[in-house]
């Protein structure tokens, strides 16, 4: 293709602040709704300049203090270090060696270059250390990392890598204040580092200690599928991730969803040939359990995860319609499809969430066009007796004993000092409230001799108890692991 026929490629220097000023002054036209500065205007306004750089460059890395630029090209064994001060001086004094075929001024290499450092065969990407002037460059052909000083232009250390390194990442190595300490090498080949299970091998990431003068390999980590590519690292304490979305949150648009649904307000609405389903997900039930539409309808599903506990994500997969949704706590998701084939399509939760996970399923019934329902009798699938009811009640009593012991532990410690535990306790309290309602219904049916419904409601009581116990045990474990103390 002739991409590498010249001795060098070009580094483009763009004055983006000046370009923004031109836009603000109304001197830039739009093309297809976006601002576009033509090349001749960019040249006339002094927006863009060229500097020779090594062929097939892999990244332009500016030093944390903004004084130097490092470019490595895989067809050159050197890393080139440019002086930003020299480049600015050349631009200010219009010191150019010529123009490219499009009229863009070219700054000569000698007027921009600070150092050329021989780092190895196939240099690719560079990361900065916390130590002044120290950088690390991945060397693809030689399969190694080179540690070098870009101010003095000398190699400090080299470490063999396994194998064919591409990108690499130092802790906050792309920021104005790199943290140093560790480096991760993202390697394309593993070859002999792990036991093979067939022709397909994993990729290999290697953790390197860079805290001392010499680099030290610490750990290999296999990864499946695909070439590892560009990575950045940030200190975890700088991130403040949410535990749950606000109830009914549309994460795609970062706002409350117009389709959010609260417990007890689930519904199915038809507008012409479009059916909107407003449903909820909570351990361990999908509401509604049955959705009925007609062949040819457009169906829009809207499901809200009612959970408040951390990491209680639910899934929603619908057979035959290419629907597979991830619904994090508090989130509302939507999916629209054409019900173009009559039949019965099961749906279920794809995220294991509790011991009663199999309860989270239901059916989409797509009725044939012109279908006329016929009256039919119903037959109870399972007949329950007083013995069944009493057996379920005993299970509930035993489960309640577990809940009581967990509650005693939590309340005897300073749980209110841990927001994560407070959220779990609030959720557990809600579930236990639902359990009480189900228990009363079970007892009322039992008092009237209806052990069929009594057993079913006793089972529902137990479901709420299981969720309560699960939340409580998670809270107890959290307190134990985070140094909670007993209260007096």
What does this protein look like?
With 488 residues, the protein is of the alpha+beta class. Among the domains are: 122 residues, Methylamine Dehydrogenase, Chain H, CATH 2.130.10.10; 119 residues, Cupredoxins -  blue copper proteins (Immunoglobulin-like); 96 residues. Helix content is 23%, strand content 33%. The chain is built from 6 helices and 30 strands. The strands form 9 sheets. Strands 21, 22, 23, 25 and 28 form a 5-stranded mixed β-sheet that branches. A 5-stranded mixed β-sheet has the order 24-30-29-26-27, with no helix packed on it. A 4-stranded antiparallel β-sheet has the order 5-6-7-10. The chain is elongated and about 100 Å long.
Secondary-structure map:
Layout (H helix, E strand, L loop, with lengths): L8 E6 L1 H9 L5 E2 L2 E2 L3 H6 L3 E6 L3 E6 L5 E6 L4 E6 H9 L5 E2 L5 E2 L6 E6 L4 E6 L5 E6 L4 E6 L4 E7 L4 E6 L11 E6 L15 E7 L6 E8 L25 E2 L4 E2 L10 E5 L2 E9 L2 E3 L2 E5 L3 E8 L8 E5 L4 E5 L4 E7 L4 E6 L12 E7 L18 H26 L7 H29 L3 H31 L7
Parallel strand pairs: 22-25, 24-30
Antiparallel strand pairs: 1-4, 2-3, 5-6, 6-7, 7-10, 8-9, 11-12, 12-13, 13-14, 15-16, 16-17, 17-18, 19-20, 21-22, 22-23, 25-28, 26-27, 26-29, 29-30
Helix pairs in contact: 4-6, 5-6
């Amino acid at each position: 293709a002739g991409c590498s026929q010249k001795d060098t490629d070009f580094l483009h220097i763009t004055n983006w602040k000046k370009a923004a000023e031109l836009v603000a002054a109304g001197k830039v036209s739009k093309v297809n709704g976006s601002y576009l500065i033509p090349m001749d205007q960019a040249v006339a306004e002094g927006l863009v300049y060229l500097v020779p750089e090594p062929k097939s460059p892999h990244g332009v890395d500016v030093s944390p203090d903004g004084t130097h630029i490092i470019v490595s090209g895989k067809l050159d064994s050197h890393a080139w270090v440019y002086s930003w001060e020299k480049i600015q001086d050349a631009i200010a004094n219009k010191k150019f060696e010529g123009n490219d075929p499009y009229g863009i001024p070219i700054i000569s290499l000698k007027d921009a270059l600070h150092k050329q450092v021989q780092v190895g065969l196939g240099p690719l990407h560079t990361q900065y250390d916390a130590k002044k002037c120290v950088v690390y460059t991945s060397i693809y052909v030689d399969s190694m990392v080179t540690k070098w000083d870009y101010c003095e232009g000398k190699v400090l250390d080299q470490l063999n890598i396994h194998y064919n390194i591409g990108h690499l990442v130092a802790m906050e190595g792309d920021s104005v204040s790199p943290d140093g300490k560790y480096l991760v090498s993202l390697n394309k080949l593993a070859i002999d580092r792990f036991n093979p299970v067939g022709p397909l091998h994993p990729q290999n990431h290697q953790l390197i200690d860079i805290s001392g003068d010499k680099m030290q390999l610490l750990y290999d980590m296999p990864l499946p599928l695909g070439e590892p590519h560009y990575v950045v690292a940030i200190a975890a304490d700088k991130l403040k991730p949410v535990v749950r979305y606000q109830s009914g949150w549309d994460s795609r648009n970062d706002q409350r969803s117009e389709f959010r649904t609260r417990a007890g307000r689930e519904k199915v609405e038809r507008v012409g040939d479009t059916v909107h389903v407003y449903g909820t997900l909570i351990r361990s039930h999908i509401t509604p359990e049955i959705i009925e539409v007609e062949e040819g309808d457009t169906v829009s599903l809207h499901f809200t995860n009612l959970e408040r506990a951390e990491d209680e994500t639910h899934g929603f997969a619908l057979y035959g319609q290419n629907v597979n949704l991830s619904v994090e706590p508090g989130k509302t998701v939507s999916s629209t499809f054409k019900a173009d084939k009559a039949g019965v399509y099961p749906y279920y939760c794809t995220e294991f969430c509790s011991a009663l996970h199999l309860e989270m399923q239901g059916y989409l019934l797509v009725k044939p066009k012109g279908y006329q329902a016929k009256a039919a009798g119903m037959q109870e699938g399972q007949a329950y007796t007083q013995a069944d009811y009493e057996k379920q009640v005993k299970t509930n009593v035993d489960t309640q004993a577990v809940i009581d012991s967990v509650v005693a532990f939590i309340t005897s410690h300073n749980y209110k000092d841990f927001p994560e535990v407070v959220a779990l306790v609030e959720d557990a309290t809600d579930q236990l409230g639902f359990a009480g309602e189900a228990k009363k219904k079970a007892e009322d049916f039992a008092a009237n001799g209806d052990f069929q419904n009594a057993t079913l409601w006793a089972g529902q009581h137990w479901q709420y108890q299981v969720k309560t116990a699960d939340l409580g045990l998670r809270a107890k474990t959290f307190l134990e692991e985070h140094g909670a103390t007993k209260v007096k």
